[in-house]
Amino acid sequence: MSRKITTTIENARRLAVAKQHLAGRRPVNPDSDDILRVTRDLGCLQLDPISTVAPSHLIVLWSRLGNFDTKDLDNLLWRDKKLFEYWAHQASIVLMEDYPLYYSLMRRHPDGLVSPGSIWRQRIDKFLNANGRLRDHILSELREKGPLLSRQFEDTSRAKRSQGWSSWGDVSRMMFHLFLSGEVMVVGREGKQKVYGLSENFLPSWVSKKELSADEVEYLTVQRSLRALGIANSSEISWHFFRKRYPNLKATLKQLVANEKIIPIDISDGPVEKGERYIHSKDVVLLDDLEASKWEPRVSLLSPFDNLFCDRTRTKLLFNFDYTIEIYTPPKKRKFGYYVLSILYGDKFIGRIDPVMDRKNGTLIINAVHSEPYAPKDKDTSREIGESVEQLSKFLGAKEVVYSRKVPKYWQSHLH
Predict the structure, then answer these.
(1) How far is residue 51's CA from residue 160's CA, in Å, rounded to a whole number?
(2) Helix axes 312-319 and 9-19, enclosed angle (nearest 10)
(3) What backbone phi and psi angles, to 5 degrees, belong to 387?
(4) Is 153 exposed, middle or buried (0-12, 13-18, 19+ CB in 10 A)?
(5) Which is the CATH superfamily of the domain at 324-416?
(6) 181-198: b or e for each residue (b if 16 or more CB lie within 10 Å)?
(7) What residues are paired with 184 via a beta bridge?
(8) What is the pTM of this model?
(9) In sequence order, which residues have a C-beta less than 8 Å from that of residue 214 and are 6 or more positions away?
(10) How many CB atoms are closer than 10 A to CB 395?
(11) Which of 112, 192, 379, 398 could form a disulfide with 393 if both were Cys (CB 3.0 to 4.6 A apart)?
C-alpha cells in the first residue's frame, strides 16, 4: 500500500506558485536557457493574438523572467529550433525535445482532437475525404515553392464548405488538419501571420521521432501536468498540458502511484472534495522546504491566459479567486476591464489592473486598479505593485506610465 502525506492549503498554493516560477528572485540577465527552463517547467506557452498590452506568451515569460530579450525567443523558435508551435492545451509554443509526445498525437490525428464516433469527428472525416485534392495541392505548393502564408494558396477545392462547422475557408481548415497531423509546421511569422512549411524540411536533424504508444505518452504527460501544478486531482491534471487528452487517466494515475512516481496527498485544512489529490515524488523535497519557511514571495502581474490559473475551478478552490475574461463581454457589462492582468502577491491574488499599451505615444495607460477584499492596504504593497508596473512598462518600451483615478485610496501612494 502506498504512503500518503499531508500538507496545508497555504503550502499547496505556495508549491503551485513556486512550480510556476512565480516565487523567489528572477534571473538578473535572462537568456535563452532561462526561457527554455521556464517553458520546460510550465509545459507550454499559450498563444493568443490579442496585443492590448503584449501577446500573452510574452507576458507569461516576462512575469517569470523580467526584462528578457524577445529576440532570444524568436531565435529559439526559428533559428535554433528548440521550440515550435503546436496544440498543447491550446495553440501554444512547446519544446522540440518533447516532439515524441506530440508525434504520437500527430500520427493518431484526428483521434487526439475529437472522440471517434462523435458528430464532430464525422464532420471532420467528411471534410477530409471530400478535399483530398486540396490536401495534395497544398503539399505540392509547399514542396515546389517553399514556405508560404496560408492566404497565398489558391483554393482549388470543388467541395462546398461544410455548413455550420466553421467560418474558416477550406484552405485554412485543411492547413489546420495538416498542422495537427504534423505534415506541415509553422516555420516563421510575418507580423501575426503564420508562415507554413513542410515539417520534413523544417525539423532539425537531432529531433527524435521515437515511436511512443498512447499509453506511454499518457504516462509521461500526466507527470508533466502534475509537476507543473504542484498538487492536483485528476480533474485538474486533465485540464492541464495535454488538455482533455488523457483517455485512461484513472488507470494511469493508479499505475503511477504503484510505481511511486506520484504520491497521494491530503490538504488538512482544504475544502472537502471527492477524489484523491497527488504530488509528484520529485516535488516532495520542495514542499518540505516551503513548510520550513523557505518561501520568497514577490509581486507578479499575470496574463489572462497565464498557466497558473487557466483552470478557473482550481483557481477558485485553491486561491479563492474568481477570474473571468471580459474580452467578449459588452463594455457596459464589464466589471474589471477588457484585458485585465491579475496581481499575485506571494501565494494570494490581491487585485487586478486594466492596462493598455499606447504604442503610438509610448505610454502604458492604467485604466483602473482593483483590489480584492482581503488585499493588504499598506504602502509597501502599493510600492511593490508600482514597481511591477514600471518593470512592465520598461519591457514594453513605454516612455511613461499614466494612471487613472480608479485606484484604491490605500494604494495611491505609489500608483499615481
Answers:
(1) 34
(2) 130
(3) -65, -40
(4) buried
(5) Gcn5-related N-acetyltransferase (GNAT) (3.40.630.30)
(6) bbbbbbbbeeeeebbbbb
(7) 198
(8) 0.94
(9) 104, 108, 247
(10) 20
(11) 398
The secondary structure element, H or E, covering residue 351 is strand 348-358
Predicted confidence at residue 163, as pLDDT, reads 39
Q: What are phi and psi of 225, to 5 degrees?
A: -65, -45
Element (H, E) at 134: helix 132-145
Cα–Cα distance, 127 to 162 (Å, whole number): 7
**Would you say residue 283 has pLDDT above 80?**
yes
Rounded CA separation 257/250 (Å): 11
- The cell for 152 is 497565398
Map residue 292 onto helix, strand or coil.
Answer: coil
The helix (H) or strand (E) run that includes residue 346 is none
pLDDT at 85 over 50: yes
Q: Are 318 and 344 in contact, with CB atoms under 8 Å apart?
A: no
Query: Domain map of the chain by residue range?
Result: 1-109+181-298, 324-416
pLDDT in tens, 114-124: 777 788 889 99
For the record, the C-alpha cell of 237 comes out as 491534471
